Amino acid sequence: MRTVNTVTVSLRALRRNKMRSILTALGIIIGVGAVIAMVSIGNGAKAQVEAQVASLGQNVITVFPGSFTSGGMRGGWGSASTLTVDEAEAVKREVPNVLGVSPEARDRAQVLANGLNWNTLVMGESPDYAAIRSWPMADGAMFTDQDVRSVAKVAVIGRTVADQLFPDGDPIGKTIRIRNIPFKIVGVLASKGFNLFNQDQDDTVVIPYTSHLKRVSHHLNINSILVQAANADAIAKVQQDITDLLMQRRKGREQDFTVRNQVELAQAATATADTMTLLLAFVAGVSLVVGGIGVMNIMLVSVTERTREIGIRLAVGAHGRDVLLQFLIEAVILSSLGGLIGILLGVGFSELVSLKTGWPVLVSLVSVVGAVAFSAAVGMFFGYYPARKAAQLDPIEALRYE
To answer: Is the Cα dihedral 302, 305, 308, 309 positive or negative?
Structure first.
């Protein structure tokens, strides 16, 4: 009952100075609202990056060309590719826990169809490409291994290319000309949108890599190798096995390739978002501390104003711990109410930002609970000194206070 009475007295004291209580809680409200909003926006950005990384495929390992030395000529990362189709086939044949491999050849070209033309990315890939990239077909089917072996003139196009060259009809079975070479369209890829590098993934034409090398680009080497590991646990081992195999085939030459997995790409991509979220949360946390200082300041003023009231309570038998508890409760109530209102403000602001700018937001339950707990802790921490000062007042001196 004593605790209930103390809470009642604390609420009555806060109601007596409504405006001052509201202004005191305002610092906590703004602080908690800022924490919720900033963390939500940061988490939304991180989730968007992770979704874009996931759109590149599941358990994907990519072999890129690295620096090279040939005779007296040296080049930096990606300046020339020494990767070959034979090496891609060796990876598929000799490395365990590999589900699919696609040698990649890339080039931009002006393509023509239906009396229209469009500049797009022409990709040479294997039939495993769609499975590696987790890219379903919207219509038609992927080309086959037989198409690769026969250097067939067949193509699968992205949604953007289909919309640009065939705005009024079904492209399946139609002909698209790549550098004046006719390719029959056998499939249309489902829409994927923009990727991590702000490139339209749907703006592409995919043909067998043999057709790309022998008919379109006339290159001997490929640009990269896509590999899909059997599962996430096998990625590191497969990555190391690929490196060992390719180095073995180079017979002592320096490493002129780089092997990267999707986890590393995701970590690099989300590092900036994590840093920004942490920075924004820190700045918002500072405002919470400032709000806590405001709580302590007002509680000190309240102790001074209510010195005679405290003296009377102590004189009629109240213990110092009762006075301490009363002022602590007042500080915690101010901070907790400010925290709850701040949550509503933060969530509302996050949704407003998302609505106006199109940015994704992700309200985290952890950040909500953490903000409320932190605001209550701020109230207790900054309210303790004024409460202790009130509890240690001498009753006789407090009754004399004017």
So the answer is: negative
What residues contact residue 19 under an 8 Å CB cut-off, 6+ apart?
none
Phi, psi of 317 (to 5 degrees): 120, 0
Tell me which of 232, 255, 278 is where a domain ends. 255
- Considering the domain architecture, whether residues 243 and 279 belong to the same structural domain is answered as no
pLDDT tens-digit readout, 185-217: 999 999 988 766 667 889 999 999 999 999 999
Whether residue 262 lies inside any domain: the answer is no
3-state SS class at 194: strand
Let me know: does 184 contact 157? Beta carbons within 8 Å: no
Residue matched to tokens 């970590």: 267
Cα dist from 55 to 51, 125, 129, 201, whole Å: 6, 17, 13, 10
Per-residue model confidence as pLDDT tens digits over 225-247: 999 998 888 888 999 999 999 99
| C-alpha–C-alpha distance, residues 261 and 375, integer Å | 41
The Cα-based distances of 44 to 56, 172, 197 in angstroms read 19, 38, 17
| 118 and 231 assigned to the same domain | yes
Quote the DSSP letter at residue 373: H
Q: What is the pTM of this model?
A: 0.63
Identify the three-state secondary structure at position 120.
Answer: strand
Structure tokens that stand for 26 in this block: 């305002």
